[in-house]
Fold this protein.
Amino acid sequence: MTARARPEGMSAYIAVTAAYWAFMLSDGALRMLVLLHFHTLGFSPVQLAYLFVLYEIAGMITNLSAGWIAARFGLTATLYAGLGIQVLALLALAQLDPGWAIGVSVAYVMCVQGASGVAKDLAKMSSKSAVKLLAPREGAGLFRWVAVLTGSKNAVKGVGFLLGAALLAGLGFAGAVWVMAAVLTAILLAVALAMPPGLPRGRKGAKFSEVFSDSANVNWLSAARVFLFGARDVWFVVGIPIYFYAVLSDGSEAGNRAAFFLIGSFMAVWIILYGAVQAAAPRVLRAASRDEGALIAVARGWALVLCVVPGGLAVAAWLAPQPAGWLTVVLVAGLLAFGAIFAVNSSLHSYLILAFTRDERVTMDVGFYYMANAGGRLIGTVLSGLTYQAGGLALTLGVAAVMVALSALAAGRLRPVSAG
């Protein structure tokens, strides 16, 4: 893209960020709504995990094709499509009938979650790709802009967890979903009206085969991303929320409401902390004074540091009679530490994928990379229910530690572009 063809950087960045924030607020709220609502209906950990499986599968498929779709039809088209599909998913979820059999309810919610997974990854790929094209080239500008976008959206998603729990307690499941659909529709219309011109409109000659990268760095970074996000979701999706529910609720309606609020608050604080550290990652890593090669070199070390946390928590969970008060305190502190270190790893990955790709391939490589991200989340989601049901919290956290170690091994294969 020439300097003349470059879009209005800051105004376009603000519009893209606002759209992404709106989406992630609804995404966080919807996840907490679904998890807590169906847990109170008696769903097992494995059944709860199944509710999110199609969400992650749809994310993988969407990311594989979204890069090509954006290259073919333009970034704004995929961004608006993501927001629009999320509105339709919320409207569909509002039609859920409590009288349906459990099997029918699971299948229906899985399909709706699948649509939401498509929506999320259309919005994510569009937003992250736009940053590559909009960010200033000098002074670690790319790392700063992607860190702010990624960090702020995770803080917003954390607020969404709290919002989802609060809406469930205050309005009930159907009322909460209707409110979210109405607000997101209004935001979609506002963003469409405010978006400045200049983002790429697509090229007719884009081929689907271009999605697969021949860059070793893109492929190894994608592998590292699979295991990093699998390590998070293996405890985040089912294990920890259900453990906290067992600790906090006495089974009464009032006890359930209090547990919803406290669980939602913890998940919100975790995501907000994660987002804040992500936004600060360029300063933590001293990115302004380091070149790309130096940042590549620290990726493996940060993953190894992260590995220690779930490993230690797994030992604590194995030693404790569950649920135990001291274990809950250790888990809260340990998982907050995990979130901070995980955030540095995640932010560094998000910068590196944009550093490794070229402007003309940005949607393809970013789509492929986030397909790997969704694959890791899928693996983590399935293992979250299976490991918690099979071996409790100790097994869940032990698997998380192994997955972080595998992420570190993959990150160790990255090389500076000039050396490739």
Q: What stands out?
A: Residues 1-7 have pLDDT under 50 and may be disordered. The chain has eleven helices and no strands. The domain at 9-197+211-419 is CATH 1.20.1250.20 (Growth Hormone; Chain: A;).
